[in-house]
Amino acid sequence: MESQRKDSPFIGEAVCAACHSEAAKVWKQSRHAHAFATLKKEGKHFDPECLECHVVGLKPWQPPEDTDPQFKKWEGLVGFLSPELTPHMMNVQCENCHGPARAHLLDPNQKLPVSNPGETCVSCHHGSHSPLFDFEKYWPKIQHK
Hints:
Blueprint: H1 13-17, H2 21-28, H3 35-41, H4 48-54, H5 69-72, H6 94-98, H7 102-106, H8 117-122, H9 135-142
């Protein structure tokens, strides 16, 4: 993708969809695909606390300790900068749950860590942010292979 910064560990949904089209179809039908519009409607699209979950890579990325060294070169880098500069990083996308995919893009044999869906979901869906969230109810709506 021409507009993607090469110094970011994040690549965005459109790049992922080129190889993972079935997962992309599930995503496009989900609320995650429209998460930024939800913020805008509520007038919270500049609130860092809200953006953290509604865009890709707002905070500097911290790799897990057991991360492949290939990933560590992007430590501290971000994805989303603003709607104007990085529109392809808006919404909840693949990398919000699966982590940065740049190393996987460069070498498809480099697998992304498989996240624990229950733990991953509650990193955003908790407390007043999502008081009615029920993993067992919502997981089937976004589950993909």
